[in-house]
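Regression check, adenosine-3'-5'-diphosphate case 317:
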Amino acid sequence: MEDAQTNGMARENGQDIVLSESRTRFNEHKGIVLPSHALPEVIEDLQSFKFRPDDILVVTSPKSGTHWVFETVALIMADGVWENVKRDTLKNHLEFVILNKDAFDESKPMTMFYKQLDKMPSPRIMFTHLPLELLPPGVFEANAKIIYSARNPKDVLASLYRFIGKTPEALFVTWEILYSTIFTDQFFYGAWDRHVLSYWKLRNDKNVLFLKYEDMKKNPTKIVAQIAEFINHPISDDVRDVIVEKTSLDKIKKEMKRLEETLEDGYMFSKAYGTLNYFQKGVIGDWKNYFTVAQNEQFDKELEERLGESGLEFDYE
Ligand code: A3P
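Current build output:
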């Protein structure tokens, strides 16, 4: 098994996943651009991933507070005690794979997080950036819970641009490329507007909670209580306040540093990507440092057309 994985092939459930050798920095699946760590073969295999009724799946278009919401859910389930959060993997990210070539360590097997998640005891919390059309249908069949987090697209762009600037992908992705592709399938995980709007349409489903990053930032107490109620995990007001405090940016960063240093996956992850760079500025309105006046005007016009009568609106400061 380890040999097969090291050679770029994983055998599980009688099926082979053969990884293409001619991989570029980005992948593409059904016309949708994916980052290098999200492989089409894995997304196909995930279509038969078995969900359970007590699963919680955090879904986002990238840079919309995924890790923040994930850690908040985890801490609610652990009644506000970090040490009680069950961590079987560094990242419960469904489609995320660490290729050993990225970790520059051919001696280790490839890390496919979903294989570990498959074996993880219930209740599981997982996350994904998959757009609705690529989401494994088992989520709905099992009546698992979906928490979707959306963020204003201007800050999404600013956050992604800064994030990519710290990775080798920076060589391929400029601000202009990101700005001009956000509403197309050349954007990571597909057009931002289709991603968000398709889940927005599900917001009244009893198994879907639609959150906005800006609301969480402005009133975390309310959102933590809302999440606890949605996942049927009652917490006292005191525990709620502890969770708000512990998931503030500075506190959460410290906890992530500890994980990176102590979990086994942390070794591979930090070799491949340096560090868990998911907790950075954490503000609303940083986009003003990146958009020109003309870009902003054009963006506002386009956004208005795309969100149209959907009723979906965002705060930008
Ligand atoms: P910035 O890059 O604007 O700082 P994701 O987890 O989807 O990749 O999203 C990352 C973004 O969420 C980053 O935005 C990160 O700083 C922000 N974030 C993470 N934890 C946060 C917190 N506790 N409070 C505010 N923002 C947070």
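Comparison notes: The radius of gyration is 19 Å. The chain has 14 helices and ten strands. No diff flagged against the previous build.
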